[in-house]
Write a structure and sequence with these properties.
Pfam families: Cytochrom_C (PF00034). By secondary structure, the chain is mainly alpha-helical. It has helices at about 5-35, 40, 65-70, 75-85, 95-100, 105-115, 135-140, 145-150, 165-175, 175-180, 205-215, 225-235, 240-250, and strands at about 50-55, 60, 130. The radius of gyration is 21 Å and the shape is globular. Bound molecules: heme C (2 copies). One heme C binds next to helix 10, helix 11 and helix 12.
Length: about 260
């Protein structure tokens, strides 16, 4: 083979490897967008929908990301997700920024790589209309996503060392949105609230995987909210990921 042909072959192989790495990155990004609820809250096409429809409290849309993200650089999307503020400094509401800020650099890059594959569609939505009871909610502690993330920044799930790091990380970026920043649930849980995930220690591996994929509890009943969200969001996780979460959660109460 002539030297030129060899050089050409080598660069072709490098290109193919690059394309494969890009496809892997986008596929992982789609998994993250699913399990982190971007798709639940912003829609399959990321074009947004009515999110809160209570004239007394607020009328809010989830943003049409398919139109907004092309106007932002990767660094700006990263910054918006980690801070809970737009580039003009206005804070976002209802966004689980306290969870998004925990994404690793690599996962953030993969997520953005997938977000960029979604074509622009639909219209931009109007800003939130605040109702008369919104002020009262603020007085009771309701916060925008940026302030909430700052308040919760120190409430992380217990660190049980390298052996449990993967399960801890996955639970921090998925389960924490509903089960609380430290996975301990609300201080005074009411029926139907997402509880302290200590309860996971009572599950068998198979029962736990069924719960995460379907929202069906070990007593056979369907969990509130999780019954709808688990099949849509969490069932995309691999069995190894679900087991790493179970192992981490099972270890927490022992400490
Ligand atoms: C619990 C629902 C919810 C989840 C989960 C969620 N979002 Fe949002 N997001 C919203 C709402 C509602 C808004 C509009 C906030 C506002 O107008 O103040 C928003 C706004 C945004 C914005 C700001 C766009 C603008 O208007 O300038 C970006 C960017 C964004 N979301 C990206 C994401 C990504 C990426 C994910 C997943 C990692 C995600 N969101 C998950 C509800 C959600
Ligand atoms: C969209 C919100 C949401 C997300 C995300 C979520 N959960 Fe839940 N989860 C709930 C709610 C609400 C309940 C209480 C349901 C009930 O009591 O019927 C619950 C209940 C549970 C229970 C208790 C079941 C029982 O036997 O009482 C476990 C265990 C659990 N979730 C695990 C997880 C794990 C692990 C993740 C992340 C991989 C996760 N959840 C993500 C909302 C959520």
């Amino acid at each position: 083979m002539r030297l030129r042909t060899v050089a050409w072959l080598v660069s072709l192989l490098a290109l193919a490897a690059c394309a494969q790495a890009g496809a892997r990155q986008r596929a992982h990004g789609l998994r993250l967008a699913t399990e982190m609820g971007c798709i639940s809250c912003h829609g399959e096409k990321l074009d947004g929908h009515v999110f809160e429809e209570n004239a007394q409290f607020a009328f809010a849309w989830s943003s049409n990301l398919s139109r907004i993200l092309p106007g932002l650089s990767n660094a700006q999307i990263d910054q918006t997700l980690r801070t809970g503020k737009r580039m003009d400094g206005t804070p976002l509401w209802f966004m689980p920024t306290f969870v998004h800020r925990r994404l690793s650099h690599e996962d953030m890059q993969d997520l953005i790589a997938w977000l960029r594959t979604v074509p622009p569609t639909g219209q931009l939505h109007p800003p939130i209309k605040f109702g008369p009871l919104f002020k009262a909610a603020l007085a009771q502690g309701f916060q925008n996503s940026a302030d909430e993330a700052a308040r919760l920044a120190a409430r992380n799930p217990a660190d049980l060392g390298q052996q449990y790091a993967k399960g801890r990380y996955l639970a921090s970026i998925t389960c924490a949105e509903c089960h609380g920043p430290d996975l301990k649930g609300p201080r005074n849980p009411q029926p139907g609230d997402a509880p302290d995930l200590m309860v996971a220690a009572t599950y068998s591996p198979a029962g736990f995987e069924r719960l995460v994929r379907t929202g069906i509890k070990q007593d056979g009943s369907k969990a509130v909210l999780m019954g709808e969200e688990a099949p849509k969001r969490l069932s995309i996780m691999t069995s190894a990921e679900i087991e790493s979460i179970r192992l981490y959660l099972g270890k927490r109460p022992a400490r």
